[in-house]
Amino acid sequence: MAGYLGRRLLMTIPILVGVSIVIFITIKIIPGDPVASMLGPTGSPEARAALHARLGLDDPLPVQYFAWLAHSVTGDFGTSLARHDAVAPIVFDALVNTLILTLAAGALAIVLGLLIGALTGLRRTGIAARIGNAFALFSISVPQYSIGLLLIIYLASNAGLFPVSGMHNPNGGGGFVDLFNHLILPAITAALVPAGIIARMFRSSVLDVMSMDFVEALTARGLSRARVMRHAFHNTVPSLLTVAGLQIGYLLGGVVFVEAVFAWPGIGLLVYQSITQRDLPVIQAGVLVSAFAFVLINLVVDALHGLVDPRIRT
Amino acid sequence: MPRYLTRRRRRRFTLFGALLATLSLLVSACGGSATSAGGAGGNTLIIGMTASDIPVLDTGLAQGQGYEGLRFVGNQLYDGLTKFDLTKDNQIPKIIPDLAESWTPNADLTSWTFKLRPGVTFHDGTPWNADAAIFNFDRYTNKSSPQFYQDLNAQGGLSIAGIKAYKKIDDLTLQIDTNGPWAYLPSDLATVYFGSPTAIKAEGNQGFAEKPVGTGPFKFDSLVRGQRMVMVANDQYWAGRPKVDKVILRPIPDPTARTAALRSGEVNWIEVPPPDDVPSLKSQGFQVLTNSYNHIWPWVYNMTKAPFDNVKVREALNWAINRQALVDNILKGTAEPALGYVPHADAAYEPADDVYGYDPAKAKQLLAEAGYPNGFTMTLSYPTSGSGNMVPTPMNTALQADLAAVGVKVELKPIEWAAMLNDFFTGKIPDNADALNISLSYQQEGFWRSWFGSDSAINAGKYSNPEVDALFAKARTVLDDSARASLYSQAAKQLGKDSPWLVVVNDRNPRVLASSVHGFVQAQSWFADLTQLSVG
Asked: Cα separation of A168 and B229, whole Å?
């Protein structure tokens, strides 16, 4: 098991290098000069040239890339072009905020997905199942951006039940309860799509397992319904883990819109904003850190797989 | 499915329902406390900005997140030698003394003597004097000084373009020499801010942005990146303590969320509401403030090729669009029709500068005279968002319909703002389109030459007229403000004949304040004076 995890961990290195090269090249290909957006209309051509030279933007691409790589492996992601500040703390602050949102949304998605999946899988007809199916379909199809705005308008602004945006009360203080209140609407918004996907997957997995011979066999041997269900549930866990793990991974990158709508100061909003400013060091570090988190989450899922399913532990 | 399990399943369903109900109760209970804690308490102004992050807090770098940074950070934490008088809403802001009490130029306007204001200290107690001023000018411009900051120099742009040399005459007297006659040096200097030399030395150039220290009406209190910046009133402010105790800046980039934050009481001031929300905000008792300022939203014609190398075509389009309908229907009164090249809030404005109107018949006639009786097809490159660009997509779609009525078919080519700027700053129109939509201003007088001067590196449409160039050159040598304004007005009249742009609207700088905010005056400026307002 340890060897397996070690190998997987080592494999993340080429993945991250690949990701960084792709980002680097993409940013260089798309039009837009970071210095131009930095200086605005009042910048003189001389000032632009001087800044270009100082930031090393005139060097050949491979030189720029390796200079960046050499610094990055020491944890120095450089200086933000737009914020004139070290990139690492900016990105890590944002990552923590995104992780909070992702984990809350992930937990919500799993709970909702399991409940609805089980409901619709165990009871294929009836009003509750229909509502469950409709909800699953709705939550997959609805654009996060619109649902976020609707929640803001109706629950936060009109009804006054929740704060409209941000992560903390601007007057400061508040602590955990304050954070929790700010978290509810963005977490619901972000959780909808993965909840729907998990529900639909779990439903078919429940249907599959419930039609297997062992369920009938166990029932025939007089096991109680609860114990039968426990065995059945155990059989759905591997596929559940895979889907839930992937969904949480996607959430990491997919909360961009949610963060933008709710002004949640996370990594999605940071990278989005940095793209409009062509702030390459922040984009590079932000995407890399997200990719690393994605890989790590998948690693954890694999490890859990190993725990629940001895067959893949070799 | 075996039937005998139905009862148990029903029980499970009941359990599930109970769980949901408990969850929703819990959620609404917590939510209830959220609103009471989220509101603005006391004499505190909470501003919902359009920026998606807090601007950089270091002097001139504050404009890095758009000019909102100068408005809410630069002018609040810092002072310049001069400033705009923002206390009146019925006049174009004049340049008045700030950290300098007075100034006098030599006869040919190449050397200026500034008398500095005595008795002013930075927020950390460091005295303001000629040494502090020189320290900051070195930081902006002197490459051999230890505190020189390349980023700041680059961002200084037009504001420091006129400065050639500077020296201390005595503790409270400073001499600035310019690159040739520079009549508008005092107005350029309004956005050259001064930071405490003690703090800059202690924190270093980059670190200073984390602990900024100026002389301005508000002192830095705290910053949570991406979330909020808190400033408190400077009790020692030389012009008197601001009436409001605390100002909190919050980045809320989404316009709908911004309006919702105002409605729920989380903020009591928002910038740029979506035009569609303006009528309902008014009816709900919010103060919807607008005023003219120095802003213009044109299409810059590509004059290097047909059909816009023809002046009649350029003029024709200016008669074909219904600006008032655009203002009424799409912008809900948050802008005013632009009928010429000078915004109404520019000192150069004279009624005679308004040269165009809405007359589709005249447009058709001009097109026929130009040899296009059946119109033509053109491309327009426009940014989909960006500072000052208002709501570009619906606006350009409306213009497209107006122009189609006179036979001009417009193909809209949206482009991302940063990509557009990249071309614009190198003097190009993206994709070599026939026109470029952008928002511009003459807030700094040097902009006139930037947009229209033959020798400007960022004159994207390639307009060139020696007469206009001569007027801009002459303006630099004329000290009297109104005489200089009349030179720009003459230039604008010539522009009216040459029609280098399709002029569309001037923005009216919409912002919305809660009814609890008292005493704010919306000046005819991009900037805002926060010292005279109070909340409660």
From this structure: 12
Cβ atoms of A97 and A293 within 8 Å: the answer is no
Euclidean distance between the first and the last CA atom of chain B, given in angstroms as a whole number? 66
Contact between B153 and A93 using a beta-carbon 8 Å cutoff: no
Instruction: List per-residue pLDDT tens for chain B, 536 residues long.
Output: 444 444 444 444 444 444 444 444 344 434 333 333 334 458 999 999 988 788 899 998 887 666 788 899 999 999 999 999 999 999 999 999 999 999 999 999 999 999 999 999 999 999 999 999 999 999 999 999 999 998 888 888 778 989 999 999 999 999 999 999 999 999 999 999 999 999 999 999 989 999 999 999 999 999 988 889 999 999 999 999 999 999 999 988 888 889 999 998 899 999 999 998 999 999 999 999 999 999 999 999 999 999 999 999 999 999 999 999 999 999 999 999 999 999 999 999 999 999 999 999 999 999 999 999 999 999 999 998 877 888 999 999 999 999 999 999 999 999 988 788 878 888 899 999 999 999 999 988 999 999 999 999 889 999 999 999 999 999 999 999 999 999 999 999 999 999 999 999 999 999 999 999 999 999 999 999 999 999 98
Q: Say whether B206 and A85 touch across the interface (CB within 8 A).
A: yes
Which of A50, A155, A263 is opposite residue B254, by nearest beta carbon?
Answer: A263
Residues of chain A positioned with their CB less than 8 A from the CB of B267: 170
The whole-model pTM stands at: 0.85
Helix, strand, or coil (residue B250): strand
Name chain B contacts of A278, Cβ cutoff 8 Å: 418
What gap in Å lies between CA A193 and CA A205, rounded to an integer? 18
CB contact under 8 A, A119 and B16: yes
Could you identify the residue written with the tokens 């340890």? A2
Distance from CA of B242 to the nearest CA of A (A): 19
Residue of A nearest to B56 (CA): A83
